[in-house]
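Request from the bench team (R.T.):
"We need a structural guess for the complex before ordering more pyridoxal-5'-phosphate. Sequence and SMILES attached. Just send the tokens back."

Command: build protein-pyridoxal-5'-phosphate structure.
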Amino acid sequence: MSHPDLSPATLAVTAGRPPRVQGGPVNPPLVLSSTYVSTGTPAAGELFYTRNDTETWRALEAALAALEGTALPALGFASGMAAIAAAFSLVPRGGRVVMPEHSYGVALGLAHELATVGDIRLTLVDIADTEAVVAAIVGAAATGHDERATAAVAHDDHVSAADRAEHDEPRNRRSDDGPAALLWIETPTNPMLEVADTPALAAAAHAVGALVVADNTFATPLVVRPLEQGVDVVVHSVTKYLAGHSDVVLGAALTSDDGLRARLASYRTVHGAIPGPFEVWLALRGLRTVALRVERSQANAAELAARLVGHPGVVEVRHPSLPSDPGHERAARLMDGFGSIVGLRPAGGAAGADAVVDRVRLWLPATSLGGVESSLERRRRFATESPTVPDDLIRLSVGIEDVEDLWRDLDQALRS
Ligand SMILES: *Cc1c(COP(=O)(O)O)cnc(C)c1O
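Reply to R.T.: structure attached below.
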């Protein structure tokens, strides 16, 4: 059910509860059963086997649907990547996918793999450059633009020639063009925090018949609801802010389109990309506090970003809250907040960044993000990260601790 009268902060608390009946529980029970009593032909919606559906999933799926503003229940997946793989399965064979060059690294890895075997064609773009993205959606053949010229800009001196050649190689396969079949958006991109003009891009994609998928992991539905901005499918790594306690790996996909939901549900069932009931139960427990957590971590992130600007140990800070940030104006217009991820380039290059990660005592050196605890990592330590991400970029996932404690720890690590 969608609840236009209640705000997301309220829905996070109220949605997905069992019916109010005398003596009934206030929380959905955790049901551990692989199968259900069933004779004859199961009626539509009747539970009969846990790979297809379970009552424990339904509570989280209702809550996520309420938050993203769709009348159709979400689909829980085994991980964010399982949901992303399901979304890619919507691309017809050989269809062209337009994707931010700084998408989540493993999603980008999947796209490259699919392009390599010829299942899709891939066009990487600077998702903040609306004109270039629209040209890429329409297709170079139709516009006369050279997509590679707009997409393949390597803007970091730390990128080696070998890295660049390796990175450009799949782009060179973006051969015969024509309109895109799928536009991929991240709100904003991981880890460069580029902000897309989602309504404009969704309109351009729909004009050529392309589907639009948004990975809303970074922003969360507390900050932006992409389905309201014209996006067809939203995917989440529930692992991050929605569950919020770094204790589960889980994904979700949401849509307001019955046909798309049926295809995603079928993908989940036949690939067995299903969540475990216990993970789902834990995620719903975590989701109850998501509004408070997001509010606090966003405030902490904006405060730390503002203080990091001009710090003697800092070369560059990226956070859409900063008036100087390239994404600031667009995020202020399209989002109800600026998120809790901060990009930081400390002095001293990659070695300087590694030293900062080694010196912090409160911040947790770890991958992942969106937990109550603040964490950080140098992204290019992963080979899967785009070589156009600066080698010295540290991604800060700002948590809900006291901001002065976070600042003191970061400040001493940047100074020593
Ligand atoms: C972590 C992450 C994913 C992948 O989710 P998993 O739950 O780890 O599979 C996808 N997109 C973004 C933006 C992420 O941060």
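Two things stood out. The mean pLDDT is 91. Residues 77-255 form a domain with the Aspartate Aminotransferase; domain 2 fold (CATH 3.40.640.10).
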